[in-house]
Amino acid sequence: xxxxxxxxxxxxxxxxxxxxxxxxxxTKIVVARRTYRSAPDDVWDALTDPERLPRWFAPVTGDLxxxxxxxxxxxxxxxxxxCREPERFAVTWEFGGQVxxxxxxxxxxxxxxxxxxxxxxxxxxxxxxxxxPGAVGVxxxxxxxxxxxxxxxxxxxxxxxxxEWPTTPEGQAFVERATAGWARADAADGRETTSAEAxxxxxxxxxxxxxxxxx
Length: 215
Description:
Layout: H1 6-10, E1 14-22, E2 25-36, H2 40-48, H3 53-56, E3 60-62, E4 69-72, E5 77-84, E6 88-95, E7 98-109, E8 112-121, H4 125-131, H5 134-153, H6 169-188, H7 193-208
Antiparallel strand pairs: 1-2, 2-8, 3-4, 4-5, 5-6, 6-7, 7-8
């Protein structure tokens, strides 16, 4: 994709898992963090400009201001709960009859921008046991990589990371490393390592349509 090494990019993401609470019920908080070479203003523009979003993510329509509603084509919609340019925005993430919460923070770092993405959700225990944090985390890994390629080249690359890409050899290698990273975050949060790795393997199968490599 546009000269950007996928496996190198997946290794640049720091992954964490935290626990929270909303409306008196426990939540899981998936956190992905990485640094881009671009300035905060440019990263913010790529994240919020309706003209740029389709180049690396997907078409987004609606009122992209605090209090407005948005819709990602073929995916989630929701409400822009807060927006502080060029530092932070937070939205509800409404999909399949469920509501979760996404927050993005931008901080100047090393001549570029550190991006922190937090996705908080009430998670069905059986679903979590089966797939762990990678179920949502790998999707954000793909988005963060797409953003990196767009920022580095200015090119439209969203179609390069479509639904079929994870089934390619390069895509499978990317997903394998991403799921392994989320399994380590799951284990660091207290889950038994073998169980976390097994959930990661099931997540790998979900994204690629194949079994995880042995060993």
